[in-house]
Design brief:
By secondary structure, the protein is of the alpha+beta class. The protein has seven helices and five strands; from the N terminus they run E-E-H-H-H-E-H-H-E-E-H-H. The strands form two sheets. It has a three-stranded antiparallel beta sheet with strand order 3-5-4. The protein has a two-stranded antiparallel ribbon with strand order 1-2. Helix 3 packs across helix 4, helix 3 packs across helix 5 and helix 4 crosses helix 5. The protein starts with a strand and ends in a 5-residue tail after the last helix. 15% of the residues are buried. The model has no long low-confidence stretch (mean pLDDT 87).
Length: 159
């Protein structure tokens, strides 16, 4: 198998270590470790944070839509949402179109928590990506988002 890096083909492991998949996996592991440390300070799991960040402030979303937005398995959403509601970080109300369903939204307390977390993480993010210029950071985010959206669109539905 030949791997192309910087326009040149190589079959060696040293070149593999420069491939996007390898680098994303290693960088992801470093970021996840740091991220989990910050979330732990707020007694949040990654899934809880993802759901909290996906919840709208006003008009609610159905649980299945929240799970899709947060990128978590809908089967896990019940427990995650329940934990957030128990802490007062999320609220629900009956769906006006379907009384069996609930519409979920972030609570005032949840919004305050997200704001504090964002303020704390902004300088950490700058340190983590200190080797990039603002333009490079923006380009990196755009490219990663493009790949992520494509992968999400190709992922089999979990519903």
């Amino acid at each position: 198998m030949s791997i192309t890096v910087g326009g040149e083909a190589s079959s060696g492991f040293s070149e593999y270590r420069r491939s996007a998949g390898f680098l994303l996996a290693r960088l992801g592991a470093l970021a996840e470790k740091q991220w989990n440390r910050h979330l732990k300070a707020y007694e949040l799991t990654q899934s809880e944070f993802a759901v909290l960040a996906a919840l709208p402030a006003r008009k609610g979303l159905r649980q299945s839509d929240v799970a899709a937005r947060a990128g978590i398995d809908p089967r896990n959403a019940v427990a995650v949402i329940g934990a957030l509601q128990k802490r007062g970080l999320a609220a629900s109300q009956p769906d006006p179109e379907d009384g069996r369903a609930k519409m979920l939204r972030i609570s005032r307390l949840g919004s305050q928590l997200l704001n504090r977390l964002h303020e704390r993480l902004a300088p950490e993010r700058e340190k983590f990506f200190a080797g990039l210029s603002p333009g490079e950071y923006s380009t990196l985010c755009s490219l990663l988002e493009k790949v992520y959206r494509e992968r999400q669109a190709q992922a089999p539905s979990r519903r």
